Amino acid sequence: MQRTPILSLMLLTAATLTAAQSGRRPAATPTPAAAETIDPSEYSESRPMRSRSPNMAARPAPTAAKPAPNAKPVEVESEDQVIKVETDLITIPVSVFDRSGLYVPNIRRSEFKIFEDGVEQEIAYFGTSDKPFTVVLLLDTSLSTNYRIEEIREAARAFVDQLKIQDSVMVIEFDRNVSVLTDVTNDRQRIYKAIGKADFGMGTSLYDAVDQVLRRRLSRIEGRKAVVLFTDGVDTTSRKAGYDTTLTVAEEADAMVFPIYYDTFEWNRQGAGSPFPVIGSQIGTRPGDYALGRKYLQELADYTGGRVFRPESTPGGLTAAFEGIAEELRRQYNVGYIPAVKGVPGQRKQIRVRVNRPNLIIRARDSYIVADSPSSP
Q1: What b-and-e string marks burial along 83-101, b requiring 16 or more CB atoms within 10 Å of the CB?
Q2: Least reliable range by pLDDT among 73-82, 173-182, 215-224, 313-322
Q3: Most confidently modeled of 99-108, 200-209, 265-274?
């Protein structure tokens, strides 16, 4: 009977020495490695993207397109779509669907896990409330989309029809220039009138339009926000931004991008989109230009947590797609955490979201770039 206290003392001493040597307290919490031992068949995870390297096929952007750092603090109660890293709290919008594409409600906070650079983080905030949001309808009115301009107008109106009265819309068109047709409003008649004003012109400054919307327009707006981008993805006249710089801006931004992709290649290849003779090798009519455009739109969606839709291949048509986008924006889960290890400005942090339920599709942005602090030059 005397051996039990002695044995306990020996075990306690050994545990104390081990903790002292490793710099940890004896009552340390379980390590991330222990959390990874869950059976993969019992949970679902967001899928990380491959590391992005500069796209040498795209036209280089002017140096003036360097993205400005986010300077506003995170307001937890106003959605949160974003990642604003000047404050300690990082919030990630997460969409959860079943295999048939239906939104999955009522997932508890305890069922979520979030990892940064492979290390599990403690969840500090969790929200699921239904809140209004702001959407930018970004309409490509370049010559290449001329023959589909009325279809684009009708699709934009159809999206507005899915919104609630408290949801707000900004309408912007772009050809060679970027023009605001109406500022943020929830007045449906003003929105419909602005959409009706969209008309085609020469050139396509897609990169400039994306850059302006994400950096100058939506960065001033609090709450949930998104961009619904109607385009064929081909840029020909941007002067201030480029392929890679806008993707970097998208990674830092707090808005999801949902491109509605229109394939105009065959029509433009035949010269039908121009009052002048069109040569097949002209920029905007080469197969490589369209392949690059599709790749850009897919990456833009992936890096912001959105999705690409093709009108001709979307089950239920664009109306069903717009219903899904509106529901997703309104009912996303928002998971917040304070990083265990703070990054340095410019560093990319990888994010992985897990839900402890099998056979689900988890969509969330997979990374963010640590921005400069407000006090940085």
Answers
A1: bbbbbebbbbbbbbbeeee
A2: 73-82
A3: 200-209
How do residues 125-135 score in pLDDT, each as one tens digit?
A: 998 767 789 99
What domains can you pick out in the chain, each with its CATH number?
55-377 (3.40.50.410)
Q: Is 123 buried (19+), middle (13-18) or exposed (0-12) by CB count in 10 A? A: middle
Of the candidates 178, 155, 86, 121, the one whose C-alpha atom is nearest the C-alpha of residue 375 is 86
Three-state SS sequence of the chain = CCHHHHHHHHHHHHHHHHHHHHCCCCCCCCCHHHHCCCCHHHCEECCCCCCCCCCCCCCCCCHHHCCCCCCCCCCCCCCCCCCCCCCCCEEEEEEEECCCCCECCCCCHHHEEEEECCEEECEEEEECCCCCEEEEEEEECEHHHHHHHHHHHHHHHHHHHCCCCCCEEEEEEECCCEEEEEEEECCHHHHHHHHHHCCCECCCCHHHHHHHHHHHHHHHCCCEEEEEEEECCCCCCCCCCCHHHHHHHHHHCCCEEEEEECCCHHHHHCCCCCCCCCCCCCCCCCHHHHHHHHHHHHHHHHHHCCCCECHHHCCCHHHHHHHHHHHHHHHCEEEEECCCCCCCCCCEEEEEEEECCCCCEEECCCEEECCCCCCCC
Residue 81 has pLDDT above 90, yes or no: no
Displacement of CA 65 from its chain's centroid (Å): 20
Gap between the Cα atoms of 327 and 223, Å rounded: 16
Contact 122, 110 (CB under 8 A): no
At residue 317, does pLDDT exceed 80?
Answer: no
Average pLDDT, the chain: 76
How confident is the model over 240-257, as a mean pLDDT?
Answer: 92
CA 261 to CA 294: how far, in whole Å? 8
pLDDT band of 263, cuts 50, 70, 90:
confident
Output the pLDDT for position 340.
Answer: 92
